[in-house]
Design goal:
By secondary structure, this protein is α/β, with parallel strands linked by helices. It folds into 2 domains: 94 residues; 129 residues, no CATH class. Strands 1-2-3-4-5-6-7 form a 7-stranded mixed β-sheet, sandwiched between helices. Helix 1 runs antiparallel to helix 2, helix 4 crosses helix 5 and helix 5 packs parallel to helix 6. The N and C termini lie far apart (116 Å).
């Protein structure tokens, strides 16, 4: 109800002046009451909103903390898994090296006749007489060394044993075989592995290095991606003519 309606309603009973004064008084009261209710509602709404925003901020902060802890835990777990993988690879490589050395006469029997497994230190006197100290130290780090007959000629086989062979293994085998030849000892480089990429095999042939996977020689047209690769048909460990 507005002031005009109040004036019209009470003008008859009270008279024009009294009705006008009453209308003004009630109009002011209604306006003040309206403003008071609106401001109170706004205050209540603002307080409720502030409380909700505070709760939301608190929840977001807890979520951020939880995410940070999760990311930290994930990083720690990743580091642990990486360490386990490295140790597992090293362990597998060590086991493969021991097995290859133990079975070398069988693995190389058709290639290296009368094969005998040696330790690099067994030829230390011979290589020290011809090589400088860094070369001797490099030679001593070879994974495997054996002597025997290749095509009825005394030959040393020196090389690397790696679970997954790569170009670095080929380079080390080629380099250490060259060091033996520099010491006037006929030698052939060898990389023994469980898995090897065809590109690595092709590179090995360029370097004059023999590559054997799982107890058999492989040529540059063959490769293995793992022990379960049934498509691999490598030739036996036999002389390459």
């Amino acid at each position: 109800m507005n002031t005009f309606q109040i004036f019209e309603q009470f003008r008859g009973p009270l008279g024009e002046e009294a009705a006008k004064a009453l209308a003004q008084t009630l109009g002011a009261m209604f306006a003040e009451l309206k403003d008071s209710v609106t401001k109170e509602d706004f205050r209540i709404l603002r307080e409720a909103s502030d409380a909700n925003f505070t709760r939301i901020d608190s929840v977001l902060e807890r979520l951020a903390d939880a995410q940070a802890r999760t990311e930290q835990s994930l990083q720690e777990l990743t580091a642990v898994v990486r360490g386990l993988v490295i140790r597992t690879d090293r362990h597998e490589g060590d086991l493969l090296e021991l097995r290859f050395q133990r079975r070398l006469p069988s693995y190389l029997g058709l290639y290296l006749r009368r094969a005998k497994v040696l330790q690099p230190a067994d030829l230390l006197d011979e290589v020290e007489a011809k090589l400088d100290r860094p070369e001797v130290e490099d030679y001593l780090r070879a994974d495997v060394l054996a002597q025997g007959l290749v095509d009825d000629k005394p030959t040393y086989v020196i090389g690397e044993v790696s679970y997954t062979a790569d170009a670095d293994d080929v380079e080390r085998a080629a380099r250490r075989a060259a060091l033996l030849r520099k010491a006037d000892l006929p030698a052939v480089g060898l990389v023994a592995c469980e898995s090897v990429h065809p590109q690595t095999i092709a590179y090995a042939r360029e370097q004059g290095v023999r590559v054997g996977a799982r107890g058999r020689f492989v040529d540059e047209k063959e490769g293995t991606s793992g022990a379960g690769n049934a498509a691999l048909q490598p030739e036996p460990w036999a002389p390459r003519r």
